[in-house]
Design goal:
Blueprint: H1 3-6, E1 17-21, E2 29-30, E3 36-37, E4 48-55, E5 67-70, E6 76-80, E7 83-89, E8 93-97
Antiparallel strand pairs: 1-4, 1-7, 2-3, 4-5, 5-8, 6-7
Keywords: Chaperone
Family: Belongs to the GroES chaperonin family.
Pfam family, one: Cpn10
Length: 109
């Protein structure tokens, strides 16, 4: 199979996997008070937001288009048609931001 044939195939996520667009902004960032934080500064256990592109059939509470909060340590990087994405497990996602869950607490009691 040539590389040209592979780019035309759709991707289906399996099990509890979530495909997210790789967050940009790994460079410098600015705090609320205006302090410039260089890209080389390491922040322990800093969580990252990303947009969901696709989900596997066993994913229960996340849909494509949601924003999810995850640890950069719990990821696998993949390139699809020249674009960089991350593959996460649903259990490694800490929070979901979506319009459809606006009035829900998100708590499991």
């Amino acid at each position: 199979m040539s590389d040209g044939d592979r780019t035309k195939q759709p991707i289906t996520m399996l099990a509890d996997r979530v495909l997210v667009s790789q967050p940009t902004g790994d460079g410098e960032r600015q705090s609320r008070s205006g302090i410039l934080i260089p890209a080389t500064a390491q922040v322990a256990k800093r969580l990252t937001w990303a947009e969901v592109v696709a989900v596997g059939p066993n994913v229960r509470s996340i849909k494509a288009g949601d924003l999810v909060l995850f640890s950069p340590e719990d990821r696998y990087e993949v390139e699809v048609q020249g674009d960089a994405y991350l593959i996460l497990r649903e259990r490694d996602i800490h929070a979901v931001a979506a319009d459809r869950i606006e009035n829900e607490t998100g708590l499991y009691l």
